[in-house]
Predict the structure.
Amino acid sequence: MGKIYSFEDLETWKESRKLLGFVMNVVGRRELSIEYFLVSQIKSSTISVMANIAEGFGRYGLKDSKNFYIIARGSLNETKSHLYVLKDMGYMKESEFVTLYNQTNSVGKLLNGLILL
């Protein structure tokens, strides 16, 4: 692993970006255009994961950084909850749900590593 100079170097941020890409592929479907509120919520929570990781990295104190990583973890759990709603409403295949769920777990493990530093 190379040196970390910016938030873009963090594996946690990279994986959260990948999660956002997966989410955007699902919510960009035409049939979901009627679910504006739900689409807005899951986009917002997933973007919040990335944003809070970046903001936490930009803080000078470890305690302050950890607070943003904890907020990111909360947003990640919100995203996971929205995934269940999409699946339960029939907007996602089981295989897509599993892929997204596993990605949220991967990001969560990496976030926990940042929090426990």
Notes: Residues 8-115 form a domain with the de novo design (two linked rop proteins) fold (CATH 1.20.1440.60). The chain has a mean pLDDT of 94. The helical segments are 11-27, 36-57, 62-88, 94-115. DSSP finds four helices and no strands in the chain.
